[in-house]
Amino acid sequence: MNLFRAAHLRGRRLAIGAGALLLAGCASVDFEESVRQTNQDAAGFTQGRLALAGTPAQREVMAREADALLAQPLGQDEAVRLALLNSPALQALLANNWSEAATAAQGARIANPVFTFERMRSPDEVEFGRMLAFGLLDLITLPHRYGVARRQIAQAQLRLTTEVVDQVTRIRQTWVNAVAAQQKQSYAEQVYEAADAGAELAQRLQAVGNITRLQRARHQAFYADAATQLAGARHAALAAREALVRQLGLTDAQAARLQLPGQLPPLPAAPRTAGQVAQATTEQRLDVRQARLGFDAAAKAQGLTAVTSLTDIELGVRRDQTFDKAEGHTERARGYEIEVRLPLFDWGGMQRDSMNARTLAAANALEATLRAAGSELRESYSAYRTGYDIARHYRDEVLPLSKAISEENTLRYNGMLIGVFELLADSREQIGAVVNAINAQQQFWLADAALQAAVLGKPTAVAVGLAAAPGAAEAGH
Amino acid sequence: MTSRRTFLQALGISGGAVAAAGVGKAALAALPEPVIQTKPDTMAPLLPQTGRPYNPVVTLNGWTLPWRMNNGVKEFHLVAEPVVREMAPGFTAHLWGYNGQSPGPTIEVVEGDRVRIFVTNRLPEHTSIHWHGQRLPNGMDGVAGLNQPAIPSGKTYVYEFVARRPGTFMYHPHADEMVQMAMGMMGFWVTHPKGRHPLIDEVDRDFCFLLNAYDIDPGSYTPKIMTMLDFNLWSWNSRIFPGIDSLNVRLNDKVRIRIGNLTMTNHPIHLHGHEFLVTGTDGGPTPKGTRWYEVTTDVAVGQMRQIEFRADEEGDWAFHCHKSHHTMNAMGHDVPTLIGVDHRGIAKKISKLVPDYMVMGERGMADMTEMDMPIPDNTVPMMTGDGPFGSVEMGGMFSVVKVRRDQKPGDYSNPGWFKHPPGTMAREFDGAVQTPHRQSGAGGGQSMPRARQDASDVEVHVRKPTHKAGH
């Protein structure tokens, strides 16, 4: 407002224009600041490493870091780091967001003055008409539009954070799935080996006449089934790995070098308590902040629309010259022109209704977000806590039991109380328990990733645009 | 009771004989104090200090119940109760029995004795005792519901009758009989003849034991009482080899062994090195003209057999049930036969999954005794028992009759392993062995030639005994 007033007082037309340009320049967007803000807001997600690679030099640095990461088995955090460095989709996301922010900033600029030049010629006269016209309303509403743009830019920044949180959550979950699938594949291989050993043994037993063809066929059927299971597990592992490759945006060469750790990380010693999770204040949640900005922007825009919907005013400065051949003199005329659109047919009621409705919608959306936030958090925490308890139950109860069963069965085999086929069948069963334990651990880590996002306030429905081309515009300074 | 304690001490059984605690003295004032046995060892014979004299028996891994004389009546006190029986070193079973052990103590009386037996029930359910094979009043026969009400938990009943007929008998419950017998409730009863009996010889050593069977899962303690036939432990007096004591005798002793069968199948009992006569059954002594020499006698379910022989061959003579599975301890019945199956490659694969896996059975089951591998707790290996030349590879119903020149009369202690006189033991032949000539030909020989030849004969590879393969 102050700036506006100062500019107004200058009186001189060009000065007004210069002042306006200055103002418009200040409403431009600092994308690096925006990324910095995201790095700060979602520190746990970006590890402060979110960056848009604009130049080949930057890209090269990032590629080198990516290579270093790919040289070792990729942990969960490393996967996130790698995606931040390497994923074109994430870069696209950043660039898109930049474009969005720039578009928002554009709204706070004054339209360029229009210069009109006329040359009219009659048999006796030549008339030159020059007019420099400004949209007066543009100028009047500038502070207003500046405020709107600022909010829109802030919104875009928040949206960026949200989308990054969403992406990172997906990367984490995809990583969990890939590691778990790989782990399950190795157990499917063990089951297969057990069945294979059994089938082979049965074949040899039949060959020397110790068992019947029927018995052999039964043992072989286990083997046949295990082979199918293994094929399925192998594909599942590959599919999960490829999903990760896509999330990380790896090239074929990089994908070939991707190594995953042999197993999921162990469960944390203690789960996060509900109290710790609830500490995230509602006001700081991304979804709440975004809804609030949406509401503010709508409210601000409403005020603006109250004026713009009614009318449009254009101010023009004229300087005309007429050359009279007959009389041989030149006439000069100066003046100004104001163009006002008359609100005869459209009094802007519909537009104002629309804005009213939009503001109302934004207000309610904010309220809805506030109300849903706690509920979503409780649900996410329940999923997390249940996942933890089940995984811990598997770790502390089921797996030790299954180990004890294996050991006892080996003792029984030693005592010739059970045969080798029972021993093998049991080992298959115990492996089944291990696979269930991996599933439980996988569920926990998926819920953990989801909870981290929920604590920060990732809205449930986040559309992530991946395919948009990066904007060509340079930063507006 | 001090005097009786002294008396028990003299018999060498007071170490294990303790007065039962927990039963009020006043309540039992009229009863003989119950004597409880805490050890499963074979106790020295109980020489009669009161009543008619007789030549006592020795109960294999058991003992004889002391009595008191009360106005000419022999009074015994049996306490039916849960017991812990060591069935072999390292393997104990939670059974039901009498006076601290299963089977209960042997009751020895003399023909014509008036006997009064107090039976205290310390089981969680009612019980009764049937005096198997005795002549007695119908109301003393012990069939709960038929002859008497069952003895409720915590109550004491008294049975009283005259031991009319000399012979070998048993006692066991006849209330919830299936469960209580599966849990080990049984005992031996010997009625000695009063004076000389034309059909009952005097013997130098008189052993007795009951055949019984249990189904106790390896690693557990309590028998499965619902098992009908598929028992996994075959025992003599609830002991399994190597937990069964040897029968130690002096050279040229006349030996009597009394065997009662309370399992659910018959047992052909076989003695090495001697022939014996069956001199008695549950019906009493057999007429002399019906006796013939045997080395194996079948003891059918619910029967008694009394065998006698002159131990005139020195040595350690195996004595066992001839059903070979009955000379094994707990074993799996669905274990596939692996004889002749080549394990190359597979063993490695399996041990990847089961790290402690070792190949067994490829050359037969003797591997079992050669490998010292851990087995479930509270279990005795299926084949076990080390003799002077290695594992005896036996279990269950197996023992040894030890005949020794220098065994003192009345000495029942184990003389150790027999020392074979030079040149009296099998040895390795070190001459040349010719390849035996083998007959080849069609299945049924000339009289019944095989009509159809199988498309592919099973090829049997016999792996000749060589040096132990390095598994």
TrEMBL record, chain A:
The record's annotation in InterPro entries points to: MdtP/NodT-like (IPR010131)
Q: What is this protein called?
A: TolC family protein
TrEMBL record, chain B:
Q: What membrane topology term does the record carry?
A: Lipid-anchor
Annotated compartments: Cell outer membrane
Checking PROSITE patterns in the record gives:
MULTICOPPER_OXIDASE2 (PS00080), TAT (PS51318)
Extract the signal peptide range.
1-19
Classify the main location: membrane
List each copy of the Plastocyanin-like domain by range.
91-194, 221-335
Q: What is this protein called?
A: Copper oxidase
PANTHER family, A to Z: MULTI-COPPER OXIDASE
User: Where along the chain is composition biased (Basic and acidic residues)?
Assistant: 451-462
Does the keyword section mention Metal-binding?
A: yes
InterPro entries according to UniProt: Cu-oxidase-like_N, Cu-oxidase_C, Cu-oxidase_fam, Cu_oxidase_Cu_BS, Cupredoxin, TAT_signal, TAT_signal_bac_arc
What species does this protein belong to? Chitiniphilus purpureus
Keywords (A to Z) from UniProt: Metal-binding, Oxidoreductase, Signal
Cited Gene3D superfamilies: Cupredoxins - blue copper proteins
User: Per its UniProt record, what Pfam families does this chain match?
Assistant: Cu-oxidase_2, Cu-oxidase_3
Question: Residues annotated as region Disordered?
Answer: 432-471
Keyword check for Kinase: no
